[in-house]
Amino acid sequence: MSSSIILLLRVCFVIIFAWAVRARPYTKVFDVRNFGAVGNGKIDCSKAFMKAFEMACAWEGDAMVYIPKGTYYAGLTIFSGEKDRCKFRTLRFQVDGIVKAPTDLVGDSWIKFIYIKRLTIDGGGTFDGQGALAWKLNDCNMNRHCRKLPKSITFDFVAHSTVNRIHSVNSKSVHINVHACRNMKFNSITISAPDDSPNTDGIHIGNSKSISIMSSMIGTGDDCISMSPGSEDIYIANVTCGPGHGISVGSLGGDKDELNVKGVIVRNCTLIGTDNGVRIKTWAKSYPNVVQNVTFEDIFMNSVDKPIFIDQEYCPSGLCDTKHSSNVQIRDVHYRNIWGSSSTKLAVHFVCSRSLPCQNLELKRIFLRYSGKDGPVSSSCTHARGDSFGKQIPASCLK
User: What are the boundaries of the signal sequence (predicted)?
Assistant: First the structure.
């Protein structure tokens, strides 16, 4: 081989090597300790967290905000990419430590992510809402104008993002709130609070599209997962729920001009000792709304109160106007391959609207046992229309 060819090959190798080095992904790490955070559980680290985010926001490439092991006390913390001011290509929050809220924090939220795209939260860390002292102040089941307690983690106008392996414990209100978001994935989330902690929904979704929740464990004092108006294209799979109030669509119809709920799939889930199983709830007197194309399938119930439940007379305070029927139309709801045990005799209960009966309900392969002394398992349908297929225990009440 001639020397000129050898020289040419060496030049090509150098060029290729230089290109590979430049093309190799590089992530700029912003360690919160470098901005004043101290992991002793005593010093308020909220400003340090937000400063680390501001620096990551301005980075023109892949960025990481790093919260290492330790206990970090933090007050209200807002991570905002409003007006597209962030320059990063992707942003990762690596949470290895424990982030702890003040016991006396009030307001709408504690940790807020807003107007951010291409966000990943990971690391296996814990967000501790320290809600025990605040729960006694919560009378929201009786008072719709109750004192506002903060949600632990809120995502507002967040898109194309993923949350992995995060723990949330003892939130004062909702653990994770998803509002006006698009294309978000929640994987391997662990949420826990006592079964008597009020309004501590696990994951609450509203006005959001293309949201998935997978392979997670949620036990709390309210709905494990709740889907409010505007929830569209929601996929929930391999979630274990309990304690709690089950997996719920609603409540709906409480406000004027609410967006519809459509395209919900709940699959391969387990509910253990919950107050409800899979539920759709609308206010007894309500504004117009529509729930359509909802599927609950391959669901195991273990000693669940009201495993299959549509409640269009929802009124937790007992002070609602029940003279007027719900104006929410429920249609195209499918219950397929749901089995296990009911802790009450009435395992399938459809209480639909007098003025807008439920349409196109489907019961397929339902097998729910009950071993109480008050008789065999039963079902009840009011203003419900649909069909049944395959095994039905209890016997279907649909006509």
Answer: 1-23
The closest of 305, 218, 291 to 252, measured between CA atoms, is 291
pLDDT of residue 256: 93
Q: Hey, how many other C-beta atoms are within 10 angstroms of the C-beta on 165?
A: 16
Fold for the domain defined by 26-204: Pectate Lyase C-like (2.160.20)
Which residues are annotated as catalytic?
A: 245
CATH topology of domain 223-399: Pectate Lyase C-like (2.160.20)
> In 10 A of CB 378, how many CB atoms?
17
Angle (nearest 5°) at CA 388 between 215 and 399: 135
Q: What is the mean pLDDT of the chain?
A: 92
Q: Give the number of other Cβ atoms within 10 Å of residue 218's Cβ.
A: 26
How many alpha carbons lie under 13 Å from residue 199 in its C-beta half-sphere?
24
* pTM across the whole model: 0.92
Distance CA 375, CA 370 (A): 8
Which ranges constitute the DSSP H helices of the chain?
A: 3-23, 46-58, 132-135
Measured CA to CA, the distance from residue 101 to residue 53 in angstroms comes to 19
Q: Examine the pLDDT at 151 and tell me if it is beyond 50.
A: yes
